[in-house]
Write a structure and sequence with these properties.
This protein is an alpha/beta fold. It is built from 10 helices and 8 strands. The strands form 2 sheets. Strands 3-2-1-6-7-8 form a 6-stranded parallel beta sheet, with helices on both faces. The chain has a two-stranded antiparallel ribbon with strand order 4-5.
């Protein structure tokens, strides 16, 4: 029987330039989902991250504040905002080199999944627009169409990407040794380790070194690593600090890319 092959793609700076959730957060701020105090909170934790590195309590604090921001809001509203943000902001940021690889996997009959800490409301839409099979993403709990302020599944970051991919493979019968994964950050190592064909895409320096040490394929698309700038500092991929679009956490993504 022919093996069932899948391809798994990280999103931020692998498939889309910059932090996708940050763009959504900008729109949420414009619509007054959150305010200056939330931004100050995010900036404070971004500064602590820059000085002292990542810590689980800090990650939890940022995520808690972010979930509090969307508690009670309508899920359909967030989905609609995500669709608008993709069409207006994210579509032009798609890394065409990575998109070509994604299209080739589809043409070869492989299932294609996005694996990202970005909220499911945005990740699912990105997957749909790019023709992917679906998305594994961070899930905020909702009840009767409104957010509860809690996560319904583990935050999809680091080893949780590995867990999500292996669980999906068991469910769908994917041969992971024959499958592919694409990522740009050291945080994507667990995702890349889940498959037999890992590919570092325009990797940040630490992942580049790791990929070379382990004989992984490296592909570079110059446009994919164009970074976002903010009034406070250089944008950073902070899947390690937050993977939810909801407000403050998304702002932190723009402030602290764990490079």
């Amino acid at each position: 029987m022919t093996s069932k092959v899948a391809a798994f793609f990280d999103v931020d700076n692998t498939l889309i330039r910059g932090a996708s959730a940050y763009q959504l957060a900008r729109e949420l701020y414009r619509r007054e989902f959150f305010g200056v105090r939330d931004i100050a909170f995010a900036a404070w934790h971004a500064g602590l991250y820059t000085l002292f590195g990542e810590s689980l309590p800090r990650v939890a604090a940022v995520r808690r504040r972010a979930l509090d921001v969307i508690a009670g809001h309508d899920v359909a509203e967030l989905v609609s905002i995500g669709e608008e943000v993709y069409a207006r902001v994210l579509a032009p940021r798609v890394v065409m080199g990575t998109k070509t690889i994604l299209d080739e996997h589809i043409e070869d009959g492989h299932d294609v999944w996005l694996v990202t800490a970005t909220p499911a409301e945005l990740a699912n839409h990105i997957a749909s627009r790019l023709g992917a099979t679906g998305a594994l993403a961070s899930q905020a709990e909702h009840l009767h169409g409104h957010y509860t302020g809690r996560m319904s599944a583990p935050f999809l970051h680091g080893k949780e990407k590995y867990n999500a991919v292996t669980a999906l493979a068991a469910e769908r019968g994917y041969d992971l040794e024959a499958s592919y994964a694409y990522g740009d950050s050291l945080n994507d190592v667990p995702l890349l380790q889940a498959v037999g064909n890992p590919v570092a895409v325009s990797p940040e320096p630490r992942l580049r070194r790791y990929a070379r040490q382990h004989g992984w394929q490296i592909i570079t698309f110059p446009s994919s690593r164009r970074r976002l700038m903010t009034g406070i500092g250089r944008g950073v991929k902070s899947a390690s600090l937050a993977g939810a679009v909801w407000a403050a956490a998304a702002v932190v993504r723009s402030l602290t890319r764990d490079r």
